[in-house]
Amino acid sequence: MNLPNRITITRICLIPVMMLALLVDFDFYPPPIEIGAFRLPYNQLIAAIIFLVAASTDGLDGYLARKNNMVTNLGKLLDPLADKLLVTAILVSLVEMGKIDSWVVVVIVSREFAVTGLRQIALLDGSVVAASNWGKLKTIIQIVAIVALLINNFPFVFLGIPFDLIAIWAAVLITIYSGIDYFVKNIHLLSSSKV
To answer: Which of 78-82, 146-150, 162-166 comes out lowest in average pLDDT?
Structure first.
């Protein structure tokens, strides 16, 4: 149980804390943040902060593992699992809150399962499907979109710009494209696989 794996496990442990903060209404005191017609409940703000902290550890654990030669099979299993649990948990919560449509979550989660399956096939054949630039961009845009939704489009709401909706659409499109990109670049794994 090295430091990178501890960081990954901490990310997983932050998920129920984030869910509790998001789905339980703590706004009896202090009152929510209100600026004119804008309203931001504290539970959403707290969940956004926890989500950002958890998401920021994603690159950190991998970086430390590679830099200090601490890459383990446990880490290879837990790191992508933690990422998928974090994003899926928050997206399902946003559906529950009526902030996004369920089909958005289905598209994003389906892509994650498909790419994970491709990676598993590669591992069985002794290959590794590395994260692509499109995959990294997908992650960044998903994080930005989720935070924008959690904080009720602040500060863009005051400019009349639906940044949260633009960001979630961008996340969906790049999620789809990055998934296709993974399969196009690794189609040989499917045709040559013994699975």
So the answer is: 78-82
